[in-house]
Amino acid sequence: MPCCVIDVPLSVLDLAPVAAGATAGEALRHTTELARRTEELGYHRFWVAEHHNMPGIASSAPAVLLAHLAAHTSTIRLGSGGVMLPNHAPLVVAEQFGTLDALHPGRIDLGIGRAPGTDQVTALALRRTMEGLSAEGFPRELAELMNHFTGERPGPITATPGRGQQPAVWLLGSSGFSAQLAGMLGLPFSFAHHFSSQHTLPALALYRQSFRPSRWLAEPYAMVAVNAVCADSDERAEWLAGPSALSLLRLRSGRPGPLASPDEAAAYPFTEVEREFVRQRREGQAMGSPETVRRQLGELLARTGADELMLTTLVYDVADRVRSYELIATKVAGGLRRDG
Known about the structure:
CATH superfamily: Luciferase-like domain
CATH topology: TIM Barrel
Distance between the termini: 10 Å
Strand content: 15-25%
CATH class: Alpha Beta
Order of helices and strands: EEHEHEHEHHEHEHEHHHEHEHE
Shape: globular
Helix content: 40-55%
Strand order of the largest sheet: 2-3-4-5-6-7-8-10
Structural class: alpha/beta
Radius of gyration: 19 Å
Oligomer: single chain
Number of helices: 12
Largest sheet: 8 strands, parallel, barrel
């Protein structure tokens, strides 16, 4: 028998989606509106993700966006989901997030990913050298970044701000590599279930098996990111989710663009192969009425034993995005528990 039942914190991952016919400035203002509203609703943290060369995503500079969001909120934790370390010199990341932590102590998360978050041509344009762009260099660069905060290995460079600052460092992953590394380093781990659901359970098992207590964590702490679209009915949620499915197909075919409207997505002539691709990507996600989403998130918690869920909602209209988070906060969250 379980010893207790634990309430599960809910958090937000936002991509600052640029809707068809809108501007990047409008997308960023909508993300700011969403951050303020989710803070009011009691969500635990609000993360933005680094992407490049994608016309439909405006969150290309997480540190800059987080500074803006921090100035327009007061309590919610803010962070990167994530900063893609291969794109940047560790010193630059330490100074950026050291600055954020110095300005907003106790509120900043630094989620680190090892993928470039873009194509290789754009990644090369960011880094301007092939060095550091391979996965093999990631543990070394992560160690360098951590040392800029801790100063455990003194050297000729002091990150200011950076040295002595304490943003909460997370590792992000969609496979076993970062899961194992996060466990070995005793860091919290966030898994990208929203686009790699087939690897979720093996990665979480590897993280927990590999975990070693550290100065940051005594026990493993795993967060699972999941697509969530909640509306007043299952049919409405399905309609709202259409643009994200079309966006995924366009990205897969090398034709990324602004986020289509629900009407445009509904009119798109999906082939059977494309419908099957979308169906597979939606497995294990949460989409529907509050009752449906509560059941789906509950099943995800039961399978994963996640300590926290991070919801990402990619829909065309910001009002529908806000409404989804409102429904989950008011009609779903209270019924979410995990055995502990």
